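Repro case for the chain-ordering regression, as requested:
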Amino acid sequence: MEKKVLMKGNEAIAEAAIRAGCRHYFGYPITPQTEIAAYMAKRMPKIGGTFLQAESEIAAINMVYGVASAGLRVMTSSSSPGVSLKGEGLSYLAGADLPALVVNVQRGGPGLGGIQPSQSDYFQATRGAGHGDFRMIVLAPASVQEMAELTVKAFDLADKYRMTSMLLADGTMGQMMEPVALDDLKITPMPEKPWATTGTKMERKRNIINSLSLVPEELEQFNFARYEKYAKIEREEARAEEYRMEDAEICVAAFGIASRVSRNAVDAAREMGIKVGLIRPITLWPYPVEAFKRSLSTVKKYVSVELNMGQMIEDVRLATECRRPVTLCNRAGGMIPTPEQVLEAIKAAANGGEN
Amino acid sequence: MKTKRITLFVGHYGSGKTNIAVNYALALAKERPPVAVADLDIVNPYFRSKDSLADLEAAGVRLIASPYAGGNLDLPALPQEMYAVTDDKTLTAVLDVGGDDRGALALGRLTPAILEENDFECLAVVNRYRPLTGTPAETLEVLREIEGAGGVPITGIVNNSNLGRETTPADVLASVEYAEEVSRLSGLPVKMTTAERGVYASLTGKIPDLFPLDLQKKIG
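-- result from build under test --
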């Protein structure tokens, strides 16, 4: 019998991070992600790791910067308002080309908002987590098992490309409990990091980690190089799950918890004879453009299902080059669309409803 | 089991305390009225006995909960009516305590009165399929921390080993040995083993003191 444990999404992230070799966690409590910190607080001392509750989210992200500079796997986690506080640090991590994992278990906003689930930090994660030209790899799990798998994947990608990976979950994903097969996780060893500040032992030139660059000609070159790397990631790392898309004339686009609701609605609509499928982006950046381009051969209309006022819908339009109508089916402020609501949106699209 | 006036459910975070407390109170409603459930959870703002308010009210069970429980205010507040648990000796009380030692801390105000009256059962809910209580030794460590924080000695074990909706009868059967080992290490009896209604029928007669659970749904 395969060995499974019953875990909360937040706990699965923490345990998977430990198994991926992360021994340094810095954070500050905020609902609905506090179980990550609580789990780390219990486990890290037992395995020779560091758990530190920082004085603020800003302090935590800068501690991440420090450990990442030393070439070790490191993470922090927070929820929406806390991630906003980390914005400056995220930009510095990008400017210094440092690998790290940042988890955002989103809640309703803007402002202090509420504690119920949301996907309204999509823009922040995929476009503007901080100042300057930079990207983060953004992964969107849709089950507790995937919370664990994508945490491992996030560390791998961060190290591979020397940049920040963000796991973008929501309050439901963080709080829900599902069986997880942790032993199935594919752990790859951390790559060599010759750039890390590990001490020269007087045997090599010193390594410097820095994001300050006062010569504009040089800073421009750094940006060009970084965007060449981003272009490679866009070509090679985009991932999506396609569900019942073979002959789909309607395509639902949804990630995370919205995709689970949508899947039920797709099944219900299929039973009514509507040719509908689901594209579930697993990477939000890079966005799985190819999956959408392929879908254009059969799909006539798209429905973007989101727990926000319509953010990913922009990427659906970009990926399909605005060649088809895209409608929005959404709830906001901590509310979750029901399968019935999504089904109605699918039916409206099938009946040639408003665009 | 012979019912004490106060039954406390303590245990590891996410072990199933709230669900069991609600089911247990509903079972007691006929047997030993009047029954009240007191929600003393100051740890988790999401999964609360208040989610089962309609079922409890229908069965005539009084819910003692903070006005903020189950709301969107992440406020670790205790209900002002909680003293009814120790003051009103006619009440059969079920206490839904928050997870881990942090949750058990909330018992502090009630502990002296509970110990003085000495008509209580303090049941530790355990689930071998939870990652931090996967072995009997780890489980015992958590139970000791809870006792230390709450001050009420644990008097029995509730084996609530499950994998959520995927739980099979074999999963429950495979947990019996674990529960017995926790019992042996702690010197505490296994008071009951729970089984969700879907697998309960196929387990009756195979496990002693089997207690059926109806899954309380999260509302709102």
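Ordering looks correct now. Residues 241-350 of chain A form a domain with the Rossmann fold fold (CATH 3.40.50.920).
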